[in-house]
From TrEMBL, chain A:
SMART domains: S_TKc. This is non-specific serine/threonine protein kinase. InterPro entries: Kinase-like_dom_sf, Prot_kinase_dom, Protein_kinase_ATP_BS. It comes from the Bacteria. It comes from Streptomyces morookaense. The keyword Transferase applies.
Automatic annotation (TrEMBL), chain B:
This is Serine/threonine protein kinase. It comes from the Bacteria. Keywords: Kinase, Serine/threonine-protein kinase, Transferase. GO terms for molecular function: protein serine/threonine kinase activity.
Length: 466, 261
């Protein structure tokens, strides 16, 4: 169903200037198993947005059954591009079927017109990214995956070759030829062609039965691949599984999943990323399901915010303000720590009249529950707007830790749903007051971040910011 | 990588000899796992017990590596043979004390000598053998997207599969799947299948369904009805092989020419 069109038989390079619909070919980019890719541009266009990539799926010489399959692949890719638009997914701008009865390679070929990227994540890994570059890349991939999974799709062939870097350095997911729409009764799984890339296939795949519609894929399939990629980013491209060939690495992954070998990651992978990769590489689907692209992204975002604010802007309650608050009897003493608060500079206890509800922050990470030293890795974020994705540009500089008690004045039940590390899901948010001197008076705590459910009035629908 | 399957048939008792295994034994080993074989004893446990006085307590061991397996010969004096039953006499000799011989056959018959006329033998299947996709040849394939089910197109099971798919590939019938006797008849003209029995055809279909394609049990079959189950399996094998392009029009050339009935 797929042939090599990169050289030898079947190759018919398209000359520069060749017209495909509104687009024209400039130069060849490369060929993969699925297709040949050319650089192109909009006819008559001169701006950077007019530069595109033309992915050509030829059906030459294929039996009708196989040709249909190529068409299906293209259709799936175009469909996903249309329905799951997002800045972190490569955009499909157009699809064209070529009619050239005299040129069998082209006649009936399907052309997908896509955004043009500068290079792939594989190139960046080979070049050896800095930790900051790696972190940004992984955050982008997580963001794309979170969107894809939220819209009900699984990528199915996530690997560094299918993550493209744009000229501005941002990353986008690409190549949705194996993408699967989640069906199942509750949208938990879908069925995909029995294909994949050895190094990125989750261990359960090797035992997965083949049904009428293919093999079962779930979002956890992509999460496993993400775990491999995180390791690769920080370990010079090496997989966490030992072996000289993809086959022996797949066998090693199986050995690990069966519990006969531990997961041994490269020491070059920084601790935060090692922990993240280990969660992505949980040996079974069930264990992995606790870690969604959304929760992984939240952890990365939280850390980015924490790291960013360590350079002096890290939140500390101004001592003077606190004193003042205490002395004046604190009309708005809205913030308190009921526990371990001495080193953080205990603010005044809230007065009952001013604090309708109190919520104690709960961190599902066991390691964080046990610490009281308020390290950045254990901090949690508060959202500016519960209606927008819980990402780095939507959190306030104030961080909170396990055990902190916050004053909440109302609750909102229709925010962006948040899933915690243990898989608990909730769209409920609490509006909490920020310490005095903060840029804004309140922020939002996802309900999954506390075990408390105080009786609070509903909040008015937040007015969209921006 | 699902591992390998070891099958020790029930002792045949040929020529009045004592059976070397009381019951048929089937072992499944995953990557990295080891099975020891031999006569065994209270102090020398073995996973695969071979009852014959000529066989050492610990005769050897099998270890799953990558997509294949390795054989270690613990005997100081005896060589073992590993035959490829489909290889027209192809075999390997594993000399005494040889450690970790890689075994390249998907189907193997491990033969240990005895003092009688019969040999002790067991079978090892390695269904995970990886084959490159037709388009992935001649370049680095490590990061390529490949079909996760690979079939040996020179194996007898592939001929059986091609024969099963033939009516649909030739568009003779959108539903017909040949019966086992029809497959035996169809492949009779093939050099490798002259002695193919109906029982062997059924085993090949079972192997394809269970080990190669890992077909999930087809729904809507009468449970308990052996014939229905077998037919459901046969149809599922054909349906999936065609749907996922495991057997294509070009494979019809592998079958012997058709004779006009």
């Amino acid at each position: 169903m797929r042939r090599d069109t990169s050289g030898g038989d079947g190759t018919e390079p398209l000359p520069p200037g060749y017209r495909i619909g509104d687009w024209e070919v400039t130069t060849p980019i490369g060929a993969g198993g699925w297709a040949t890719v050319y650089a192109g541009r909009r006819v008559g266009g001169g701006s950077q947005e007019d530069d595109v990539a033309l992915k050509i799926l030829s059906t030459e010489g294929l039996a009708p059954r196989q040709a249909r399959k190529v068409a299906d692949t293209a259709r799936r890719e175009a469909e996903l591009g249309r329905r799951a638009r997002h800045p972190r997914l490569i955009r499909i701008l157009d699809s064209v079927v070529i009619s050239e009865p005299d040129r069998p390679f082209l006649d009936g070929a399907i052309v997908l017109v896509m955004e043009r990227a500068a290079r792939s994540m594989r190139d960046l890994i080979d070049a050896g990214p800095t930790e900051a570059e790696g972190a940004r890349l992984i955050a982008d991939v997580c963001e794309g995956l979170a969107h894809l999974h939220r819209t009900g799709w699984v990528h199915g062939d996530l690997k560094p070759d299918n993550v493209l870097l744009m000229a501005d350095g941002s990353a986008k997911l690409a190549d949705f030829g194996l993408a699967t729409e989640l069906t199942g009764t509750r949208g938990t799984h879908g069925y995909a062609l029995p294909m994949g890339t050895f190094d990125y296939l989750p261990p359960e795949r090797w035992k997965a039965p083949l049904g009428e519609h293919g093999v079962q894929v779930r979002p956890s399939t992509d999460i496993w691949a993400l775990g491999i990629m995180i390791h690769q980013v920080f370990a010079a491209g090496a997989s966490p599984f030992p072996g000289a060939t993809p086959v022996s690495r797949a066998a090693a992954a199986q050995e690990y999943a069966d519990g006969r070998a531990p997961l041994r990651m490269d020491n070059a992978v920084p601790p935060f990323w090692r922990a993240l990769a280990a969660d992505c590489l949980a040996p079974t689907h069930t264990a992995r399901a606790a870690h969604t692209a959304e929760t992984l992204l939240a952890r990365i975002t939280d850390r980015q915010v924490a790291t960013r604010s360590t350079g002096g802007r890290r939140w500390r309650l101004p001592r003077v303000a606190l004193m003042a608050a205490a002395v004046c009897g604190a009309a708005v003493a809205s913030w308190s720590y009921a526990t371990h608060d001495s080193e953080a500079g205990a603010p005044a206890a809230p007065t009952a009249a001013e604090t309708p509800g109190r919520v104690r922050v709960f961190n599902t990470e066991q390691a964080c529950k046990e610490r009281t030293d308020r390290i950045p890795d254990c901090s949690l974020g508060l959202a500016v707007d519960p209606l927008r994705p819980y990402t780095v540009d939507n959190v306030v500089p104030t961080r909170v830790w396990h055990g902190d008690v916050l004053a909440a004045d109302c609750q909102f039940s229709q925010g962006v749903p948040i899933v915690d590390e243990a898989g608990t899901w909730s769209a409920q948010w609490f509006r909490v007051r920020l310490p005095r001197g903060s840029a804004r008076p309140t922020a939002w705590l996802p309900a999954v971040r506390t075990k408390d459910r105080p009786a609070l009035p509903p909040c008015p629908r937040p007015t969209p910011l921006r | 990588m699902g591992g390998i399957v070891i099958h020790l048939p029930q002792g045949s008792g040929d020529a009045g000899a004592e059976p070397y295994a009381e019951d048929a034994v089937t072992l499944r080993l995953g990557p990295g796992e080891v099975a020891r074989f031999g006569r065994g004893s209270a102090t020398t446990p073995v996973e695969l017990r071979l009852v014959d006085e000529a066989i050492s307590r610990l005769a050897g061991e099998i270890r799953v590596t990558d997509d294949h397996w390795q054989l270690t010969n613990h005997s100081a004096t005896q060589s073992y043979l590993v035959e490829n039953p489909e290889g027209a006499g192809e075999y390997l000799r594993v000399p005494p004390r040889r450690a970790g011989t890689p075994i390249p056959f998907e189907f193997s018959r491990v033969v240990l000598p005895t003092r009688r006329n019969t040999a002790v033998a067991f079978q090892v299947f390695a269904p995970d053998h990886v084959y490159l996709d037709p388009d992935a040849m001649g370049g680095p394939w490590g990061s390529r997207t490949v079909t996760a089910y690979s079939l040996d197109e020179t194996a007898t099971y592939f001929l059986v599969l091609a024969a099963l798919c033939e009516p649909r590939l030739r568009d003779e019938s959108p539903v017909a799947v040949p019966t086992t006797p029809q497959i035996v008849e169809r492949l009779k003209g093939h050099a490798a299948c002259a002695r193919l029995t109906a029982r062997a055809v059924s085993s090949h279909i079972d192997y394809l369904a269970e080990e190669k394609m890992r077909i999930s049990t087809p729904a809507g079959c009468e449970p308990g009805s052996r014939a229905a189950r077998r037919n459901g399996k046969r149809e599922a094998v054909v349906g999936l092989a065609l749907r996922f392009g495991l057997v294509r029009e070009e494979h019809l050339a592998l079958l012997p020419p058709r004779t006009v009935a």
